UniProtKB/TrEMBL annotation, chains A, B:
Gene3D superfamilies: 3.40.50.2300, lambda repressor-like DNA-binding domains (1.10.260.40). InterPro entries: HTH_LacI, LacI/GalR-like_sensor, Lambda_DNA-bd_dom_sf, Peripla_BP_I. The keyword DNA-binding applies. It comes from Leifsonella bigeumensis. GO terms for molecular function: DNA binding. Keywords: DNA-binding, Transcription, Transcription regulation. Residues 5-59 form the HTH lacI-type domain. This is LacI family DNA-binding transcriptional regulator.
Length: 365, 365
């Protein structure tokens, strides 16, 4: 990098002390006009620019938000957090804020990064994703009075009534409830459900939305309901396998609501493989893949999530509001409602084991 | 935000000047032991931490790389740059570097951001993506001596022989050449090509790789070759339409190589719609969708692209090397070779207009 002129260079050229140069920049009222002229001439001659980092030190605002970049996911639903990052970066830019990305392999490592960034005043606040039960990260941030907001509510019973920290979430109950009602509106009488097996609030809420609609509109409950649901890891092959199991049962579902587009794509393939191309399948997250293959899906309003997160951190007008100040008049959480995007697939189905006659294994790796 | 103790607070508590506190922090050798003890006690009492931004001002290194986040793309290939951002963030973290994200709607706006970040010493260097012919951004960075590297070579004739700035690229000629050879190895005698119509180096290189393999192995040239290729915008519907056109010609292709997975997915759908489920189709970028539907695709080594970009900026060992210093012994570009990931699709095909009997339009938006 080229050597930028420093305040010392300006002081030497102007024949004054560093403190005097500093006074010219920060307290011009106390500087004699003649000295001012000399220092300004030196600043111009050298092309000296006071560093923003110095200005930052004075104002104690970095105009920067810290975000941990989640490890790359290979699932087709994994891009949700990337899409959120895009929305957050664009909405933050409208407020003159930038995003500082960092990585961390474990929650403990992430807390170390929080500490480092806090100590360096490198960021004004953090936005966290992928929170989990008894998350040590939010505990540390609360203890250390560091402003933050999470995308995803904390796991616990009374988060809605008395949130322990600011959060924005999208109502998973509503999402799968809408999807299930949509399938029933289309004529389904037994709606299957493919969900996650990770015990998160997300998993529980989405399952509850399906169960509630099935109970209210189809009168299903207890074991009659339970046999229509399977929980699995997220992924296309997992969705395929789970849907195959459901469809092979004595009383198979006539529609399947899924907790992700990956599971839904797998379910579509399973149905097509069994000659049931017409089985309605509804996904979650409205990924580009869902649009490409004509899969109906639940859309999370990520732009509104980003905007809400920034409002909880910095206030509606962009003024700085401490995130953790909580009062009844100033709610510190937002629960947003997703929407169903209904599509008609005309393209995807299976031709059993017909395969593509590409060359053998000698080119595979 | 809470009020952090300042150097003024330390000076007041210790009963010394700001300059003395500064000396304790920066030039302890010139401070009397007794004064040192008093200042250190005040620092401890207040929990004062010298700001990293102040340290940064002294060392003129932000340990930060500026990256413009491209606008969100809805195409299934759009995630390539997101995947590159993940790789860059992780490889940068290994060198103690962070990524500062910003947005810009136009190249001119992006140059304004360069200037602002340069003036503020907020970043050490930039990594650019999506470069184009006569890119004003790289011209500005060169003129202003700002270290940078691009993912994507500059458009021009002699970039390989005499690069005008540091770049890392993945050899598109090799990618589509491998794809075409793979199709020919599998028995194809007329390989169609679906490419981009944007006139970029990327578009030209990828087409050239297909043309070269078709000429060498199948003896096709001139008009016989040209009628097998179509250029279009990127997207699934575009791929579907273009492949339909190619397949309807008097001498249709018996395999199709595509410049993206979106085009390839569209081509698969077109082939299936015409009852040609067995037509080999090969995509580009090896997206999660390609893996999900069993599409063979060309994989760009994004981790190696990120690592190479950092090496060109900061040197192989992590030492700071000016990016724009160019010598024969120190090449400033890297052309990396992609690899073919061959898959066998057993799942995707079309059932003409059978559709999914989801409810009507009243839920659509």
């Amino acid at each position: 990098m080229r050597q930028l002129p420093t305040v010392e260079d300006v002081a030497r050229i102007a024949g004054v002390s560093r403190q005097t140069v500093s006074n010219v920049l920060n307290s011009p009222a106390i500087v004699k006009p003649e000295t001012m002229t000399r220092v300004k001439a030196a600043i111009e001659q050298l092309g000296y620019r006071p560093h923003a980092s110095a200005r930052r030190l004075r104002t104690r605002k970095s105009s920067t938000i810290g975000v941990r970049l989640d490890p790359m996911s290979n699932g087709i639903s994994g891009s949700l957090l990337d899409r959120f990052l895009h929305a957050l970066t664009e909405r933050a830019a409208e407020r003159g804020l930038r995003i500082l990305l960092f990585t961390a392999r474990t929650p403990e490592h992430e807390i170390e990064e929080f500490r480092r960034l806090r100590d360096g005043s490198d960021v004004d606040a953090f936005v966290l994703t992928s929170t989990f039960r008894q998350d040590p990260r939010t505990a540390w941030l609360l203890e250390n009075d560091v402003p933050f907001v999470t995308f995803g509510r904390p796991s616990g019973d009374d988060d809605l009534g008395e949130p322990i920290h600011p959060w924005v979430d999208v109502d998973g109950f509503s999402g799968s409830n809408q999807a299930t009602n949509h399938a029933i509106d289309g004529g389904a009488t037994r709606v299957g459900y493919l969900g996650f097996d990770d015990g998160t609030t997300t998993a529980l809420e989405r399952r509850a939305g399906w169960a509630s609609a099935s109970a209210e509109r189809l009168g299903l409950a207890g074991r009659d309901l339970a046999i229509l649901a399977l929980a699995t890891e997220d992924g296309v092959p997992q969705g395929n396998a789970a849907a195959t199991t459901l469809l092979a049962s004595p009383a198979p579902p006539d529609a399947i609501v899924c907790a992700s587009d990956s599971l839904a794509l797998g379910a579509m393939m399973a149905a097509a493989g069994l000659g049931r191309n017409a089985l309605p399948v509804i996904g979650y997250d409205n990924t580009p893949v869902a649009a490409a293959v004509g899969l109906s899906s639940i859309d999370q309003p990520l732009d509104l999530v980003a905007q809400s997160a920034l409002e909880l951190l910095f206030g509606e007008t962009g003024s700085t509001v401490a995130a953790h100040v909580h009062s009844a008049a100033d709610p510190i959480h937002r629960l947003l409602t997703p929407t169903l995007v209904a599509r008609r697939s005309t393209e995807l189905a299976s031709v059993e084991n017909s395969g593509f006659p590409l060359a053998g294994n000698h080119h595979e790796r």
